[in-house]
Design goal:
Blueprint: H1 10-13, H2 17-30, H3 38-45, H4 49-61, E1 65-67, E2 74-76, H5 79-86, H6 88-108, E3 112-118, E4 121-128, E5 143-145, H7 150-157, H8 161-169, H9 176-192, E6 195-198, E7 206-213, E8 219-227, H10 239-256
Antiparallel strand pairs: 1-2, 3-4, 3-8, 4-5, 6-7, 7-8
Helix pairs in contact: 2-4, 3-4, 6-10, 7-9
Amino acid sequence: MTDISDDTPETDKYRAPALSKGLDILELLASEPNGKSQVEIAKQLGRTTPEIFRMLMVLCQRGYVEQRAEDDRYHLTTRMFELAHRHPPIRRLNSLAGEAMQRLANEVNQSMHMSILHGGRVLVIAQVDCPDNNITSVRLGAEIPLLDTASGRVLAAWMEPHALDDLMAHLGDEPVAKRQVFLDDLSGTRAEGCCQADSLTIAGVVNISAPIFDFSGKVAAAITIPFIRRLTGTSYASEADCRAKLLALTNDISRRLGAGATSR
């Protein structure tokens, strides 16, 4: 058996090349909505085509990747998303919040979604629509740039300084000015207990986002109402009413997670 000396770099002690290649492929395809061909994947990852082919075959057999007949490009399936939803914290959030979110959506006639932080981005883990014909919703499973969202501000506002620094380090080459606007907004979010602001992506939408705290007092998730004012007279509640009802909902979910309304 090969001996691993104490001066071996930590990153070299536990190498698993096949696993690394598989993860590289999954991470690459996760950011490619149109998929990639085998040759493109190999070129981008700096690997040979045969070794990528073997990994792709295993990932296809396990249901993580599929090759579409119409273009021979490889795409991610929903397998990883399904696995994520088996993870106990997400299952518990969905079980506590799902029906309550739908009841509130029906009451105020506004759609809403729940998000968590995932790799420096905002991941939508639940989405409910209101009964109106005209809605504004966010796709379930969508990953949204942190700095573009009210929910991102809520998820970051109560972080400890070191955790916030780590989060910002995941943002890559986002403009400094945009980062600073985000950071400047956090104190106001904490003071208000929520974030209410014009959407940074869709004109005419006001995002109202409130935190869900876990038993440790940390923000576990954010629920957001992309508030729209309908000209047909079917807006059942004002922005202020939606905000109050949303805070009541998130406070109740926080209490049921063990945090209670005093967590803030």
